[in-house]
Amino acid sequence: MVEHAADYEWRGEGDAAEVVLYATAERAALSAFEHLLPAATLPGVESPVYGAASPEGIGWVAVSGTHAAPDLVSVPTRGLLLVADAALDDLGVQPGEIERLIPHRLKEARRPRLTAAGIRGLCEAGAYGAAEDGLIEEEDLPLLGPLPGDADAIGRRAISAGSRDWDLLEEARAHAVGEVLDDRALEGLGLERGTFALVVTAGAGELGGLALSGHGERIAARSRGGDFGVGDDLPAAPAESEEAADLMAALGAAANFADGRAALLVHALRLELGGVAGT
User: How far is CA 142 from CA 123, 129, 151, 265, in A?
Assistant: First the structure.
């Protein structure tokens, strides 16, 4: 059972940990709570498990001090909020007009070709690797610090997929700040009502999917064999095992690759939209 604890906050008890869920409406909270319960069964789980629900989906964070569970890990995605220098009223256009312009401009954007060695470099250095090609401003680097990652942990198939992922620029959505649910948080982001902003999303793509699925299958096989002392319902590897270390190395590498793709997307937006409607 989930209970309303505060504005946009619900709480409930899972098998081994409390669940703290953030949602805008009770119906969304009730539905999301059922999806979050498996995360509270992770061996060694540390309470609480945090979750958030939105019309786009559900996300959660479950931390174990003893195990790593591939089924509770998603392909890494980097989201960035880019704030324009001018308010929407000063631009003289609606967000939809710029959003429709973005795909056409990005198709025309030039981007460097990457060899397998370049993909490996991004997996280990992230946006810092992209900076070597001039794809990110130096002042932006602290926002995209690399995680510990090992390109060897993601495998050759994933590296090959990364070359295809690199050529696919992802999502950029245009918005104007309208309804505000938390004024204090808005100030912390340097925003105000009427501000024009772009929400940029770049993921680890097929590279991340292949990397994580490979380690997931390896851990699941060891779990089914009884090697890790956990059930089949949630395969997990002990934190000190080689399998867990390899999974975390692959996860870090995939996250770094997503950061490199995000840097490329921001670079292309600056080149192609700089000066458009005063942005």
Answer: 17, 13, 22, 17
